[in-house]
Amino acid sequence: MTSRVLRTTRIACALAALGVSLSAQAQTGYTQSMHLYCMSEPEYQAYPAADDISSRNPFGNGCIRDLHDGRAAVLLPSAIENIDRVPRDSSLRRHAWGFLDRNGRVAIEPIFEAVRDFRHGLAAVKWQGKWGFIDQNGRMAVPPRFDAVQDFVEIGLAVVTLDGKPLLIDRQGNPAGEPFEDVVRAVRLSDGVPARATVQYKEEYRSATGERRYGGTGVVITRPLGDKGLYIATNGESKYGVVDKDWNWVVEPVLDDIYTQDSGDLATGYGADGAVMVTADGKLIGADQQYESMTPVGKTFYSAALPRRAGFAVLDRNGAVVATLTDEEGQASQRFADTIVYPSGEHLMALVPGQPAPVTLGKGLRAGDELEGYVLFMDDSSRAAGLLTPTGAWLHGDTAPAWLADANRMATRDGKVWLSDAQGALLNVVDKDGRALLKPETVQALQNQQLQPLAASVPGGPLGLLGQSHCHCDDVQVGLLLADGSTVTDSSWSAVTPLDDTDRGYDAGLTADQLRYAAETADGMVLLDARGKPIDLPAQQHIGMYHHGYAQVYGDGVVRMIDRAGKTFELPENFDTQVVAPGVVRFIKTAADGAPWGLYDFVAGKELAPPAFRSIGEFQNGQAIASLGAGRVGVIDVQGRWILPASHLGAERVNDTLWRVTQPGKQENEYERPAAVFNTQGKALTAFMRGLQVGDFGDGSVSAGNSERRWIISPDGADALDMKDADYVRLGDWMEIRRADRQGYLNASGVWQIAPSSRIGTAFQGTPARALAADAAGTHVMDANGKILATLRQGEWSWPPRSDLLIRHYTADRGTMTDYTDLSGKTRLTVEGMGSAFSEGRAVTQLSGGGVRWVDAKGALTGPAFDALGPMREGLAPASEDRSYGYVNGQGQFAIPAQFQALSGFTNQRAVVTTEEDSRIIDPAGHMLAQVKMQCGIRTLYGAAGQRLWPLRMPHGCKRTAASRAY
To answer: Which of helix, strand or coil describes residue 328?
Structure first.
């Protein structure tokens, strides 16, 4: 059941301020002259049935609304106003709502500001700004005290709004059931026993301390601003400002929009006074400058366009103007990383991060290569003439070394730039402060050397490896180029090899002093420290890479382990050993295929776990993935004990505290394989869900879930917050939670008989009561307790009210088809098109080729095609032809001609029809029983014989003015 939409206009609001009744504005109209016509706007239906003729008509009955419970709402001159005070200007001022009976007589005089239709013997009415309910005699059944109301439903309850909160009441107006949670925004009830209830939720904001706030307070958080507890927010009226942690406005909501930039600690705002910078402490920069735009330039500067194309102001991140450029200078500027280079007269200028003023570069220069903020400038002869570093150090002229002129190539490593000539020979290494790190003798010594740069993941570590170059010169030495620019070589070394793969996470956090290298000599491999000094370890035939702080060495026919100090550890005789944790190796005793793996602690010299595993992975924080075979995967500790049993298809590490495991079994789509998240104590934090995804949620928390259900897992992995089907996003210290509508079912006491969930259901009907429920797994038949009784096959299912059969729509070769089935899903009838429920032996089907027709009980198409066709009621069905509406009989002939713009179906021998000029109540013969039209500028009710029924008399002067004509 949907609510009638009541619309007001700005004129109505102005009249209300003058104390004039708003009742006229509840009547929806047509174009600007809406009061001259009797059509209203019908209720919107998202998925109308084929026989829902009202959804295919842009108009509904207006001057007389449809009959419900034998009553029709009508807007007439107010019974509590002197008729002579009712304006005769067609404005409907001083009109009010009342009700007619089925024969068109005034049953309840027009005294109300607004009304809803009668449902189950009661109708909602608005009196003196508040809503209540009346019975069919017009007596007040529930006094008017509510801000908003919905209709009563079959279980005898209605949803009303009081002080902004929804609540349930019974037919006496008493509260029913438990109060709804604060997060509930609205509840919609439908017929059926129990009653379907759709729950809408407010936006919820939850802080890290557990505090909860809700939307609807005039503050809507959109995103955090900086790290000082400020937030960009709107006031609910599309105006933006900034609030503090207590949601008090720091920047009033006067801006049209605010955009955060890069890291989110600065923003750009736009409003009536132009563009501004919004700082992380809530200050507006440029509010009095009327900047036309404010654009970030890299990560350091902002470009503010001055009014009337007068140029650009360049601001730093503190909002200080560091330079003002003309329009021509701005158009010619270039950005290199975060440095801005622009011409100013004959000179080239640079704006460098951290520099309070522009750096003058000089004349006759142009920018060449740039890497990580280092910019090489060339002169008119295309030779290098200057180097600008990311901090603003400028090597040029007298401050430039002589070798800079030969610079042709650049490479960066560890924040330093390596400069080479056109042939690739290294000239020097320069840091951000402009210091050349290599001594002249070092550069000279490197000329005949092959220099292999090393990875820069460990600050302060050696810069490169020295080795034999292509010239095969006799004076070439092998060694290390250290971070201070010096070299260490030894004539006995033939090659040097790094022993640390610093990109692997197992040895993360290494310092430069911990790095190790191996030098090859005639006597074997020698272990070197980070300064190239040999460590006290006899030469070995082989030294392997360090892993978890240990390396495997081979010498004198024996395999041993060493630590970074060169201390050796013995290993038992095995076919293979591999380091998997600090001081621990996995081992197999034989080379046999499928030989099991065990664990051995070589520091303590003891076996931790006997060979029993098909595989053992790398340990991290004391745990690793292990397997006993296909579909038998789990997680073990370093003692070989199972943390997660070997009963899963696979496992993957989420972080230091969490594992994601998958269920074994046949699965067509691996993406849909059920998975769950466990912590390192073996506790399940989520259910096994199809398509479970895991990701970072910010502040160390982890999000997990799929389209149906979601969890937020605490940073320590100890527990998880079940968010059910809610969407959520991190907003600084707050989490915004948005919940989709949920459906549940209430009994006559207002108690949840079926708790709200994401499952979409129909109204209950029949005996015993049954309903359809749809979720990701399909469509089901459920009982009144929510128990699933049957699952239906794929398709679009519905269960029309008062229908014995279910309806399934689907697409086949012939187009859209409709199956009519029993509650078990067994097909009883199949028809072409999109069919409706049966009524008086006939259904309506919307054909794929256009038009609608009847379908008989055998599924055969019968009767002519119409533009629209409603259900047969009492031998007549509403039908449309050439955009007009009338009623057809069982032979498909118009028994009541198509001469109306809107109409209702027949109920108890009565229907309501509307033309542009009037609305009428008619009988099955088409005879008019009552008519409402505009007469003398006011709404007037007439009876079957044309006699005026309301108002009892017309205003003075009607017969003597042009306004007395009927419109």
So the answer is: helix
Neighbours of 401 (CB within 10 A): 15
Query: Which amino acid, one-letter code, is at 293?
Result: S
Cβ-based neighbour number of residue 576 at 10 Å: 14
Specify whether the CB–CB gap between 812 and 830 falls below 8 A.
no
164: left (phi over 0), alpha (psi -120 to 50) or beta: left
Residue with tokens 């919004």: 278
Q: Quick count: other Cβ atoms within 10 Å of Cβ 807?
A: 23
Spatial neighbors of 773 by CB under 8 A, at least 6 apart, are: 759, 760, 761, 762, 779, 780, 781, 782, 786, 788
**Residues facing 608 on adjacent strands:** none
The type of residue at 566 is G
Cα–Cα distance between 877 and 870 in angstroms, integer?
A: 6
Provide the strand spans (E) within 867-937.
868-869, 877-881, 884-888, 894-900, 902-903, 911-914, 918-922, 928-935
Dist. CA 538–CA 545, nearest whole Å? 17
pTM for the model stands at: 0.75
d(CA 506, CA 500): 11
Q: In what side-by-side order are the strands of the sheet with 495-498? A: 495-498, 517-521, 524-528
Cα gap 302→316, rounded to integer Å: 6
3-state percent helix, strand, coil for the chain, nearest multiple of 5: 5, 50, 45
DSSP string, 654-717: EETTEEEEE--S--S-GGGS-EEEEETTS-B-S--BTT-EEEEEETTEEEEE-SS-EEEE-TTS
Cβ-based neighbours of 623, under 8 Å, separated by 6 or more: 635, 636, 637, 638, 643, 680
Give the Cα-Cα-Cα angle 643, 648, 654 (nearest 5 degrees).
65
Q: What's the average pLDDT block by block, 10 residues per block, for the chain (967 residues)?
A: 29 28 31 57 75 83 95 97 94 96 97 97 97 97 97 98 96 96 95 96 87 86 89 91 93 94 84 92 92 92 93 93 95 94 94 94 93 94 94 93 94 88 90 90 80 79 76 70 88 93 71 94 95 95 95 94 96 92 95 94 96 96 96 96 97 96 90 94 95 88 91 93 89 88 96 94 95 92 96 93 94 90 93 94 90 93 94 96 94 96 95 95 97 95 96 86 38
- CA 123/CA 317 separation, integer angstroms: 62
Q: DSSP character for 209?
A: T
User: Residue 532: exposed, middle, or buried by beta-carbon count in 10 A (0-12, 13-18, 19+)?
Assistant: buried
CB 559 within 8 A of CB 577: yes
CA proximity to 965, closest of 917, 913, 902: 917
**How many CA atoms within 13 Å lie on the side-chain side of 234?**
11
CB 87 within 8 A of CB 963: no
Residue 397 contacts residue 404 (beta carbons within 8 Å): no
Residue with tokens 């039209």: 933
How close are the terminal C-alpha atoms of the chain, in Å?
A: 35
Q: Which residue has the tokens 């902002």?
A: 302
Any idea which residue has 């924080």 for tokens? 621
Pull the structure tokens for residue 366. 């142009």
- Amino acid present at 40: S
